[in-house]
Every structure is written in structure tokens, then in C-alpha cells.
Structure prediction request, 835 residues.
Amino acid sequence: MSRFRKSRWVVIPVALILVLGVISVGLLLEPALQALMAQPAPTPTPELLNYRAPQSVECIYCHVSEADLRVALGPDADISRLLILPDEVYSLHGRLGCVTCHGGNGYTRDVSVAHQGLVPNPSDYREAARVCLHCHTDLRTDIPEKYLHTPHERILRGIREGWEVCACSNCHGPVAHGVEPIGSHEGLAAYCIDCHTARNVPPERLKCYGCHISPHDIELDCETCHRSVSTWAQVRLAVHPMELTGGHAGISCFVCHEKPAFRTISGYTCKDCHQRPHDFGDDNCERCHTPEGWSQ
Amino acid sequence: MEISRRRFLGLVAAGAAVAASAPLLKGTLPATASERPKARYALVIDTTKCTGCGACIEACRLRNHLPEGISYIYRIVKGNNREPWFLMIQCQHCANPPCATVCPTNATYRREDGVVLIDERLCVGCKYCMQACPYQARVYDEERGVADKCWLCLPWVLGGGLPACVEACIPGARFFGRADDPNSEVSQLIASGRAQPLHPEFGTDPSILFYVIEAE
Amino acid sequence: MQTTWGWLPAIYLFLGGLGAGALMVAAIFEFFGERYQSDFCPTALVGATVPGPLVILGTILLIFDLGAGLREPWRIFYMFTHFSSVMTWGVWLLTFFIPVSLVYGFLEVLDTFPAARDWLRGRRWLHWTKFLWNLPLRRTKRVFAGIGLGLAIGVAIYTGILLSAVGPAIPFWSTPAFPGLHIPLMPFLFLASAFSTGESLTVDLMATLFVDGRIPRGRRVHLIHLAVITAEALLISHLLIHAFGEGGAAAEAARQIALGQHSLVFWVFVILLAIIFPFVGHLYAAGLGRHLKPSGISSGISILFSGLFLRYLILVGGIHAFL
Prediction:
């Protein structure tokens, strides 16, 4: 060693080797040291949509042509849900592309290959969680401004827990196939009633308040649910403290009652309509006041 | 030279008439290239409509032939589990881009219409721009060894089309157009005052705005 | 943790800082006369000769870290053009630093080994350089030492400026030196670390190993190193405290370094090895006037390790601002 020490030029390579040695040891050490420490757990994030619109190019070629579908399925088959009109391709849900919801393979016109992995009804309760519910994350269970419940709460629970519930398209139709997503009131109500009757669902579900939050809050004419308004003149005293006789029988309900709460005459007293409490048109004081207490 | 007062007044009147009609004349002359309205693109994203589905991310990936799992757009989930909302982040095409400042080869530049592009013939792949972008909007292309990012689908846009992300947005949360045209949808959204840039304190002046972005 | 710039940039930042620091020490020894206490000064010799190869190696590693710039090397010429970028300043500094340090190293070799000087002078194929041999060696050395010192300070600082120039994008890197003042802290930290590592290589290691024990040495250099170690400690603590206080990404970076996944490396290999242990060692050396072999070698190697790990930790702490 001392012989080396005498050659002073050794300083330079020794210095270089020391530096390179430090770097090499550091490179080896650091990953090992880091592995000793606790690593942060990656945070789970919601999945992204498997958007496949460009991969849906070839689906169109059969499904736009009625003739091709008839050739494949026969002249009597129901092709209403299989035929796609060109406009529907650019609709809100059509823009997703066939493969995004239905799966399969949109790169080929060979039916057997194209339909591999096909999901015929992606809104079926077994598929909906992956398809419809991927984007529609905030389904409303109530529509307060229309005073309506929606069946979504129960259906979502059914999807989560694996019950057999209806598919989204049962009420909303095949939305990417040119059907307006929300059906009309008559259509929806009729569908609900039909299906529930067929499956023997408890009758209270069929009543108005199964869907409507409070029957007197809705924007319908009274005659829609009540057969006649004029018979209210005979409403019993227990329900309707004042007899609707005479001048009261002919006025509209809404003069005294305010929607939405029919049970109270909100803020109305007799003197709201009658200016002077004692100007009732006749002298039958006993009608309101009794000898027991004129203050009544 | 002697000039009569009448003559002088006449000359002044004639000169004034010419000067007054000059603006009229200007209107009838064809506009030169420098006087035509310059395009200025803007993209407004409505965060109340965005469902975070990621169709834009996939559409961008597919149009630009990017490998699986890589896109020019990425998603940030904000809010909580019960009521999440989403930010889709891509190159914000800033008017004051820090990436252009720090690029040693001047490969990143901003066009007059607001789009920030990368000249991939100049990029050396040092990744300094990836560090300098406060929105982390840049990705590194391992194959070509250069930095890459959203380019607002410029060939499609210049041809009258739309960027892939705008076309693909299912809830219709993306609005793209010319901010220099006061009648365009984006101009009206911007004029409403509710379209804000993301993190203006970064000082980059982005061309991408978020509508009704909620304060933290 | 930040992963875009990883180990390779950490290594070449370390090499650049070390080379710059070593040259600084050699230049200071030259100007203050320490060099000429004897005809063989290992500190000055190493400090003059080693920076050139080290920075060349660092530059090669930098080029390997590029993407397209590696496959098409002519693109690197474009890196000299964009002066708004700190990286462009850096390539210019390196371009001048490398030849200057190589020449300075060569001159120092000639000065230290007169035999080599005579041998070279006698070579026939070097006759065309005759005019150079007539230049006064010591004065030329001083000129190159001066230029080298300036360039070395530039090389040491520019890496800090490079990191802090990203501004609000990476809050940890752009931590200010004083709260409210828009002067970043990183350049000062990098300068202190560069000088400390340079000094540790040239003095703590080489001088301790190779200098004859009989030659009297002063305590000045150890006191200076003590001051630099103290400054580094203050800067690192200020960096972390301010980062914690800032919140957001800076606080997350500081938390990962001081408390989280990097804490073992930080506390043992940076704080213990770079600050505490060398501080004690240099106190002892300052008191004694020189390093004892064990103290010098261990201090030197510790500081070298910590210089490398400090740069690595600063890089992985460069977490982007939360959006």
C-alpha cells in the first residue's frame, strides 16, 4: 500500500473510483430501503366507460337494412327492435356506439363473429349496473316538483342485491333505438299496474300514492280522480265542519282551500270573505252563536 | 403662392369630405388577411352534466391511436362518494404556457388561434415540459421518445369538425367553438361569467374553461 | 412520489454538483495559497482533474436520459437555442465548464508532476504547441481557476434554478427562501450541497488519505466546511418546515420525505450522514487542525452518500400541485 501511496498520481483514479462506488452502492441501497417503509395504498376510483363507438362500424350494415334483417330472420320475425334508423345512430345514446352497450364485435360483417359476447338487452337487471348505471349514477327516487315517487329506489336495491327486477328498457324503452327515454304518464302507470297485477304485488302499490307523493299536490284536475265536485256539498260534517249549503255550495273549492294541503283552510276565517261578521244575509244568529256563549 | 380665401375654404371642405368618407371607403374595400377576424378557439366543459363516464378519454385515445390505458385526457374525481363530480383534464391550451417557456429546444409553441402544439422534430424528450405543466396534461410517448398532448384535433377542427372528446361526450357537457365569434355557443357561455379556468392562480390563462365549477 | 425524473437525473445532478464543488475547492485553494504549502496538494489535484471526467460522465448520462434526443443526437444542438429555458442555460454552462475544467486539470497535473511536464515538452509531435509552453504556468492556472470558479458556481446553482423554475406546477421545488420573497430556496441548497460534496471528496477523503502528516495545515478549511454543513442543515429544515406549512402537494412531499416512505433514507442517509455525523467530525477536525484518518474518511464518504440521496429525495418529492 505504501508503494502505491508514493505514486501521487494514484490520487486521481482513487477519487474517481470512490465516487462511482458511492453511486453504485446508493443505487442498490435505496430501493431496498424504500421497500422497508410502508407504501401508500392506491385509492380506488370509479371505472371508466368502455367507449367503443368507433368499433361499432360494421354493426350498422345489417341493422340498418330491413331487407338484410328479413333475409336473416325470415319474413314474419319481429324486427322492430333490431332495425336501426340512421338518425338514431347520432342520437344521445346512439352516439355511444352499439358495442359499448351490447358488446360483441363491430369490426366484421360475419354474424357469428359479430355476435360473440353479445348482450341482447344491456338494460336487463343483470347488466344494467355495468351499462346504464355507469353514467346514470344519480337516479332520482322522487321528483318533488311533480310530486311523484319513482320506482328507482326499489329497482336499484334489487339490482344491487340480485333480485329479479325489471329492465330499464321496460319503462324507458330501448333508448338508443329511437325511443324517448321517459314514457308518458298513462303508459307508465298502465305498465306498472299491468305488471304488478300479473305478479300479485300488494294492492296499495297500485293506488295513487304508490307513485304520487300526496294526491292533492299534483297538477291534475279534480275530476281526474274524483268523479264529481258537486257532491262535495254533501260532505259530512266530521270531515267538512261547515255545511256547504246556500252560498257556500256554489263556490269553487279553491276559494277556501289552498293546494297542496286540503285539510286546512290555510289562514281563512269567515271574515276573510265576509267583511262584517254579522252581515250574513239572515237573522238566524243561532246558527253560529248559541245562547251559551255569544262569543262563539 | 397667393390663394384666395374662397379657394382655400373650398379646398378645406373638399379635404374634410374625403377624410370623412374614408371610413366608408374602407368598408367597401376587401379586408386584408391581417384584418380578418382571427380564430380563437375555446372549449367549455359543463361539470354539472359530466357524468365522469370517460367516453371522451376513450374517444381521444382511439382517434390518436394511443396504446391501451394512455390518453391525452384524464379524470379527477372530486366531491365525496355520495355526490361525486368530475374534472376531465387535458391540455388547457394556455395563453401563457409554462411548457413553452421551459422547453430547451423551443419544440412547444402556441399558435395564434390559441392551440398549443409540439413540433416533434425538435423535441428531445427531456420531460421538462411534463414537470412544468401545472395540469399534468402531457404524456410521454415511449416509442418515439417525445412529449405528447392534446392538440384539439386541429386537422378536424380546421376542416369544420370537432375534437373527438366533444363529439363523444354523451351528456353533451362539452362545448367547442370560436371565442372570437360573439354568437357562438362558447362565447355565450363565457359571457355568462360562469365559465372559469381551472386554478387561475397558476397564472397560465387557459383556453379551456369549466362551467359552474364548484369552489373547494 | 414523482416518477418522471428518477434515479438517472439524480445521479447526473449529483455528478454535476460534485464536480462543480470540487473545482470550487481547488480554485479557492489556488487563490488563498493553500495549494502552495507543499509541491503536492492532493486536494487541488483532485479538485482540478476530477470535475472534468465526472461532469462528462454526467452529461453522457443526461443524454442517455433523453428520448428522441438520444436516437437523433443532432437535436441536442437545438437545446442551445431557447434562452427562456433554464435547461438551455445549463447546456451552455456545461459546454464551457467541461473544457475549462479539463484544461485546469491538465495545468494542475503539469504543475504537480514536473516530470510529466518535461516529458511532454520533449515530445516532437507537440512542437507546434511550443508557444503554449512559454506561458507562465501559475498565472495561467489562476486565470483558469477564476473562470472555472465562476462556471462551477453556475453549474451548481443552475440545477436548483431548473427545479424551481416550474413554479406553481410543483410547489415543493419552488419553495421560497424566505416566506413572501420570490427567491427560490433550491439554488442555495444545491450550491451548499455541491460545495459540501466537493469539499468532502477533495479534503475529507483525498487530503486525509494522501497528505503527509508532517505538513502543518490550518483549520480554516474545516471551519468553512462546518459553516456549509450548518447552512445545508438550515436550508433543508427550512425547506421541509415551509413545505409542511404550505399544505397541498408541498406538504405531501415533505410528509413522504420526513415521515413516509422515504423517511428511512432521509433520516439515516441525509440527516445523520450529511449533517450530524460530519458536523461532529468537522468540529473535531477544526479543533485539531486536521482530520484524523477515520474521521476524515467516514465524514467524506457520508457526505458523498448524502449528496446523492438528497438530490434523489428532492426529485421524488417533486409532486405536482393538487388540482
Notes: Residues 1-5, 233-239 of chain A have pLDDT under 50 and may be disordered. Residues 66 and 83 of chain A are 7 Å apart (CA to CA).
